[in-house]
What we know:
Layout: E1 15-18, H1 21-31, E2 36-43, E3 53-59, E4 65-69, H2 79-86, E5 90-93, H3 96-105, E6 114-116, H4 117-125, H5 134-142, H6 161-187, H7 198-218, E7 221-222, H8 224-251, H9 253-256, H10 271-280, H11 290-297, H12 301-320, E8 337-339, E9 349-351, H13 362-365, E10 368-369, E11 374-381, H14 384-393, H15 396-403, H16 408-417, H17 426-439, H18 445-456, H19 462-475, H20 477-491, E12 496-498, E13 504-506, H21 513-539, E14 546-550, E15 554-560, H22 564-583, E16 590-595
Parallel strand pairs: 1-4, 2-5, 5-6
Antiparallel strand pairs: 2-3, 3-4, 7-10, 8-9, 11-15, 11-16, 12-13, 14-15
This protein binds a DNA duplex through helix 10, helix 12, strand 9, helix 17 and helix 18.
Amino acid sequence: MLVSKTYPNLKDVTYHLITSTKELEIALRSLEQSSILGLDCETTGLDPHTHTLRLIQIAVPNQPVILIDLPQIAPCDRGLLQQFLAKPTLKITHNGKFDWQFLTQAGLQPSAPFFDTQLAYRVLTAGLKTSLSLQTLAQKLLNIELDKTQQVSDWSKPLTSQQLQYAALDAAILLELYPILVKKLERWQSLPAGNLQLLKIAQLEFHCMPAVAQMELNGMLLDLSRWQRLGAKLESDRDTALQQLSQLRIAGNAQMSLLPEMTDTINPNSPQQVLAALQSSEIPVSSTHQKELVPLAKHYPVIRALLDYRHLSKIMATFADSLPKHIHPVTGRIHPTYYQLGARSGRFSCRNPPLQTIPRDAAVRTCFIAAPGCQMVRADYSQIELRIVARLSGDARMQRAYRKGEDLHRLTAALVTGKAIADVSEEDRRLAKAINFGLIYGMGATKLQSYAETKYGVTLSLEQAKAFRKRFFEAYAGVAEWHETIKRNYIRGIKESRTLAGRRRRWADKPRLAELLNHPVQGLNADITKLALVKLNKVLVGTGAKLICTVHDEILLECPAAEAKHISYLLLRCMIAAARKFLHPIPVVVDIKVSASWGGDET
DNA sequence: TCAGAGTGCGCC
DNA sequence: AAACGGCGCACGCTGA
């Protein structure tokens, strides 16, 4: 099954199957001396709320792999195992989040430190589209072909020797991967540029893993009846928009008579058909993209109706109809999957359902509620990306503004319009937001124009967009220089980028300039939020607070109402401490709210 | 008929 | 010369 001269330890991996408490006691004693162990589990399925552990595999160097047939060990006899896993032995896992969740559900929560080979490999390959399966790692790092056919076998029946052999190998191989990955993570540390701490980034991820695992187990509570009422309203609004759309289309049909086959068979969800219909009504569009339609909405009611319809049907399809399907039958809560290295920048990604993209609309967010007797405590970093830009670029004016606690958007508005700060209008400030957020990643004038219109409702001519762009970089010369520095790297053909914390992103091909501008910022934001989660996980021990969601620069907790004040203090402290480590001397501002729901606005 | 690329848009 | 980045999901459409 496995042939390798290089890894004699993996040739004929021997194992010891434990089926009684007595055997377990002896086996655990034999493992006690080792400072590291490979840990893996086989389960009856993938859901830690409904499926259960079947086998726990523990590998230590130079010993048979211990395979614990957990159902054979009476729950009252699992104390020793629980104590064993709670010891500070280094646990080497592959996708340890999964094992952590099942072990935790079984009352066998493993304690740090962890070394997760999957996270480690992603830290090394961030930005590349590499597979992260154990099979791939075995192949690339050990030159071994791993047979995973047993992975999907039936683990609820009596175990076959193939299953046992497979299970033992999965744990044993972790011990071989570990030193290789450590060496790779450390190698980058010795490069001359300094501050290259890939091992530290990997350890940040390892420390974050239990917080993420627990966050998934905790899930979020949706007020279903409120949600359904909202859904009904959205649906009727959508249908109203659709009706308007069809009436308006008929009204415009004088021009459409050339294409009679289109008049009543247009699918409003088809960009192709909509584009053809708009063009045949002599509306000057080259695509039906939002950015092209928004400026026309003022002049054409049909476009307004189309945009309204699209918005509402988007929310209906992606959220209103789908979220209730994700309510877990056992917990009654929504448990998405978070991938802590899901984004190339180091950010989390989240799916099933995508809680990171829930509409901001208060009507939507107030449906996400704290459990009875509990409050939601949520906090987000104020303008974290702009503060990071101020920190990285060293731009004097930005730094001064932040240190004096000024409103950077107002400042930008004043600088680009030439007005005094006191005369800056609300619209000027919205314009400035578009400018600040857009231009820091190198947006061009054309995009700035449509971005300001679409996202901030500010209409600009192309000339104005060009002029504002020019003035922005004159006003923030440090930002312009920072861009120039990165541009030089870009021209040199550099293929990787680092955050201040050392996180690296790689490119297989030539990166785009904007990607090189973005990664140090978005990546550091991820570093900071993850550090905050790690700090938080420590201080929340013993409290009633639960981590329930994180959205890039925001952290949501749920806790008994009586604790809310204390918990919000802890959350604030952790987030500020995490950001301060990298942003100093730029001040860190965290906005914190305690409320009954995600949308509530109390405190 | 079904996988997959493309379009479009929700969030930060 | 010019260039915002990072996601996941639903949908219509294409081509084998």
